[in-house]
From TrEMBL:
Domain CENP-V/GFA: start-end pairs: 1-113
UniProt entry keywords in alphabetical sequence: Metal-binding, Zinc
Top-level taxonomic group: Bacteria
Pfam families per record: GFA
Protein name per Swiss-Prot or TrEMBL: CENP-V/GFA domain-containing protein
Family that this chain belongs to: Belongs to the Gfa family.
Keyword Nucleotide-binding applies: no
């Protein structure tokens, strides 16, 4: 699947397609309005230079929230799963030609952490 930020400065592809998305109510996700799809790092392919991105971390500083330096759209996050594997959380709102309304949502209470 193809994805990008609003201005196209950040472009990526992901192997596979989401079968559900997570809606988190933590202080960051609630403000961004993201719906996340978690994939292994190997499934994610960034097609633009790293310098097109900026990072933001908060709380325990273990998740790199990646966003476009030009338009500010938060397209994905990078982190480590509890089992130690590298993962990427894709903002499904940044996927192209994809029906978000057909995707089941799983709600996560991120405020409880």
């Amino acid at each position: 699947m193809k994805g990008s930020c609003h201005c196209g400065n950040v472009q990526f592809t992901v192997d596979g397609a989401p079968t559900e998305a997570m809606s988190c109510n933590c202080s960051m996700c609630q403000r961004k309005g993201t719906l996340m799809w978690f994939v292994s790092r190997e499934q994610f392919h960034l097609h633009t230079p790293e310098h097109h991105l900026r990072d933001y971390t908060f709380n325990k500083h273990v998740i790199r929230h990646r966003f476009c330096q030009q338009c500010g759209i938060h397209a994905f996050c990078e982190g480590i799963r509890p089992d130690g594997a590298a993962m990427v959380a894709i903002n499904v709102r940044c996927l192209e030609d994809f029906d978000i309304d057909a995707l089941p949502l799983k709600h996560y209470n991120g405020r409880a952490l």
